[in-house]
Write a structure and sequence with these properties.
Radius of gyration: 43 Å
CATH topology of the largest domain: Heat Shock Protein 90
Structural class: alpha+beta
CATH superfamily of the largest domain: Histidine kinase-like ATPase, C-terminal domain
Number of domains: 2
Helix content: 40-55%
Strand content: 15-25%
Strand order of the largest sheet: 3-5-6-8-7-10
Distance between the termini: 140 Å
Number of strands: 10
Shape: elongated
């Protein structure tokens, strides 16, 4: 017992002090939000305003793109329509040209024989036979004119545009010897054409020969229309040049000059206006129906347009009857530089045709 007590007294007894265990602070993510970090109504309003603005911008962009797609679709449709028309006219022109060449050779022989026969019968007591020979010659000349129109329509065009005096061009068309015999009886009372050149239209950019040919055709049509106009209507046609805009696309145009003719005839039915530039279409008893088709092709080759309207639909004073036809030529070559250029045989697409 004593030994045991001694051992306990003599031994060092270690007393361990209490150890403080550190406690981790609460994580900030677990903390309760303070009022300073809360989303306010103003923040929500600003967010909604930004969202609405982005939505408006997207809608505006969508509207613009939709309009552009619509415009391009329209242009593509018009281009395809012109291409189909070009292909049809090309086939028609090639066929007509082949037929015309085959007809022209025998026509030359018939014309020569009729002239020889007329000379042989002259001075003989065979007036009836001589008259028959003259009628043959007259018919041959008419057929030759038809063949010439067909070949003019089918042939390649070589365009040499230049700035020419508009007044000179109009005067050359009105005073052409082509009309001396056809309208001489109606011109005895005085001139049948009034020429007007508006400021800014003193010069027209076109091929002088082809431009005159196109203008001659519409002057001839106007003079013929005046012959069948309403009673009391003026027999004078108005030939004019004026500044204009030439459409190059549904939304774009370039400055140009319009040379045109205004008659006082009976006017044109809407259905006829839609078809009057088609080859071989005519409302007259005589004629090939190629005159206006050639006009349209010449103007197309200049990147121009032909505009036709009844005078009663264009604000004419006193509701005067008749038709106005304008040949609109750009002042510069559209999409290219000035100089000589060629156009295929038939049916080349133009920039505009209003009818």
């Amino acid at each position: 017992m004593g030994d045991a007590a001694e051992m306990m007294v003599g031994s060092a007894v270690e007393v361990t002090a209490p150890v403080a265990v550190p406690v981790a602070a609460p994580d900030a993510r677990d903390a309760i939000d303070t009022p300073s970090s809360a989303v306010t109504a103003g923040d929500l309003a600003e967010l909604m305003s930004s969202f609405n603005e982005v939505t408006r911008r997207l809608e505006a962009t969508h509207t613009v793109l939709r309009g552009e797609v619509s415009r391009l679709t329209q242009e593509l449709g018009e281009a395809n329509a012109r291409l189909r028309r070009s292909e049809r006219l090309a086939e028609l022109g090639q066929m007509a040209a082949g037929i015309a060449h085959e007809i022209r050779n025998p026509l030359g022989s018939i014309s020569l024989y009729s002239e020889m026969l007329t000379e042989d019968l002259r001075g003989l007591e065979a007036e009836e036979s001589a008259e028959t020979a003259r009628k043959i010659g007259s018919s041959v000349r008419r057929l030759d004119a038809i063949v010439r129109d067909v070949l003019d329509f089918a042939r390649d065009l070589v365009i040499r545009p230049e700035a020419i005096d508009a007044g000179d061009l109009l005067a050359a068309a009105v005073e052409s010897p082509r009309f001396d015999q056809q309208f001489s009886a109606h011109n005895s009372a005085g001139p049948d054409a009034a020429i007007t050149v508006e400021p800014g239209a003193e010069s027209v950019y076109c091929d002088s020969s082809l431009g005159l040919q196109a203008l001659l055709n519409i002057v001839e049509n106007a003079r013929q229309a005046n012959l069948s106009g309403p009673a009391g209507a003026s027999s004078v046609i108005e030939v004019f040049a004026k500044p204009c805009r030439v459409r190059t696309s549904p939304d774009e145009s370039v400055p140009g000059v319009a040379v045109g003719v205004r008659d006082r005839g009976p006017g044109i039915e809407p259905g006829v206006i839609e078809r009057m530039f088609n080859p071989f279409f005519t409302t007259r008893e005589t004629g090939t129906g190629l005159g206006l088709a050639i006009v349209h092709r010449i103007v197309d080759a200049h990147d121009g347009s032909v505009v036709v309207r009844n005078n009663t639909e264009s604000g004419e004073p006193d509701g005067r009857s008749g038709v106005t036809v304008e040949l609109r030529f750009p002042s510069v070559r559209v999409g290219g530089s000035a100089g000589e250029f060629s156009v295929g045989s038939v049916g080349d697409p133009g920039t505009e045709r209003q009818a």
